[in-house]
User: Which sequence fits this backbone?
């Protein structure tokens, strides 16, 4: 895949800004317009020889072009960002095959004041220009809302399954299968958003949230391992239903704030086999899912429970469940434990690798989450406090963050998004420490959902 250097990205953004502004003074055929358009076209052609498309847009007021975020913009770049924001353009894709005439039409539309992105897109379509595509702010918000809405539907699906069990019925699998299929699509499109949603922790609805979170985390891990859609669906269903056997355990045991007695723990240890039995009776679910649920506490060293199942063959699906289950459990506040922050949780997983958990899967999960996982609260060297919202695959030290407390100690009503460093080494700030959200009274999930 090709790349665009910071210098070329800066040049393209500056030329685009200049040509757009120039159309307020000159016609499209004037040399003052034709010259920058020709240079933009030449720059795009050179980059598109190695790329399918060039992406630029605005993220929380900051203009980006491919991997380059202009956090300290020149006046021309700032003006372009403001024009995008005014028209509610969150992104533009310039695709391979674009013509100079296409660029001229786009720049002309961009220059017209009062012409919103939706109308721009319509006019591009009318002129059969498919090589320049717009992403409108509302569309992006709809996409994020869709992920949150689907998460909510997943919670409802788990509630319905539990209601069926408590009413003595074989649970229907239709809602679970439907919502998992949707989540698979969303996971492939943008795993970071769903990983962020997995940081939603509702103390009063732990069973439901934990089940959905394990499914989401397990699907994200499966996607990073290259699983196909069908296999990811099985992973998600297994995650959703991994603790369904707890519906057969006395609630006094489930909610006990202290250590369980030996007898109580023996009762708790029956939930994997009870869950597997329930799942085996549900229609449309692969028997492999029930087998994975049976083995999600068997441990990598096969010293877990149920003891009678230790010598049974368990595949990678049960090991994926174990990693996702452990991570969500130790990052959640319970009556008997304080939660670990995401970074500390990854460190804890490493100590369990090779005994409780599969070493290679723990390594893959840590790579997926990054050095500072989504949901980590950090202090920057400029004294700002920020929440990590997206990992940076090319630089684990420099994720994308939302600044929630400024350098003066004031909470931000609308936290700005910041990329800590780009591929050229230009730095906004560096992480100096991980911060306990409880000490700062920060609800991390609020900034992720």
Assistant:
């Amino acid at each position: 895949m090709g790349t665009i250097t910071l210098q070329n990205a800066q040049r393209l953004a500056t030329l685009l800004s200049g040509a757009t502004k120039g159309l307020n003074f000159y016609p499209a055929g004037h040399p003052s317009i034709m010259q920058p358009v020709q240079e933009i076209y030449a720059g795009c052609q050179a980059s598109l020889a190695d790329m399918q498309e060039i992406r630029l847009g605005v993220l929380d007021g900051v203009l980006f072009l491919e991997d380059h975020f202009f956090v300290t913009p020149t006046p021309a770049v700032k003006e372009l960002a403001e024009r995008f924001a005014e028209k509610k353009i969150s992104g533009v894709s310039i695709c391979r095959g674009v013509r100079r005439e296409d660029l001229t039409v786009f720049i002309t539309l961009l220059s017209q004041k009062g012409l919103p992105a939706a109308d721009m897109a319509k006019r591009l379509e009318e002129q059969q220009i498919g090589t320049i595509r717009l992403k409108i702010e509302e569309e992006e918000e709809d996409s994020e809302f869709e992920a949150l809405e689907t998460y909510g539907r997943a919670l409802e699906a788990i509630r319905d399954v539990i209601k069926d069990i408590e009413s003595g019925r074989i649970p229907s699998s239709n809602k679970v299968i439907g919502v998992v299929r949707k989540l698979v699509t969303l996971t492939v499109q943008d795993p970071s958003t769903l990983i962020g949603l997995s940081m939603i922790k509702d103390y009063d609805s732990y069973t439901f949230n934990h089940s959905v979170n394990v499914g989401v985390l397990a699907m994200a891990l499966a996607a990073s391992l290259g699983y196909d859609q069908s296999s990811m669906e099985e992973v998600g269903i297994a995650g959703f239903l991994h603790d369904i056997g707890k519906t057969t355990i006395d609630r006094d045991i489930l909610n006990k704030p202290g250590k369980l007695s030996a007898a109580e723990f023996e009762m708790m240890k029956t939930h994997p086999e009870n869950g597997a039995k329930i799942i085996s009776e549900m229609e449309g679910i692969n028997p492999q899912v029930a087998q994975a649920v049976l083995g999600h506490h068997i441990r990598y060293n096969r010293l877990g429970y149920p003891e009678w199942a230790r010598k049974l063959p368990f595949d990678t699906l049960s090991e994926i469940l174990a990693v996702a289950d452990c991570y969500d459990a130790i990052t959640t506040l319970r009556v008997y434990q304080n939660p670990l922050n995401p970074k500390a949780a990854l460190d804890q997983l490493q100590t369990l690798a090779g005994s409780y958990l599969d070493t290679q899967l723990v390594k893959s999960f840590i790579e997926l989450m990054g050095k500072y996982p989504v949901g980590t609260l950090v202090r920057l060297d400029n004294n700002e406090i920020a929440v990590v919202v997206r990992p940076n695959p090319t630089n684990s030290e420099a994720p994308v963050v939302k600044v929630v407390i400024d350098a003066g100690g004031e909470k931000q009503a609308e936290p700005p998004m910041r990329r800590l460093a780009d591929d050229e080494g230009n730095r906004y700030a560096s992480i100096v420490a991980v911060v306990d959200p409880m000490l700062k009274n920060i609800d991390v999930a609020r900034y992720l959902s």
Remarks:
- The two ends are 32 Å apart (CA to CA).
- The chain has three domains: 6-130, 140-369, 377-448.
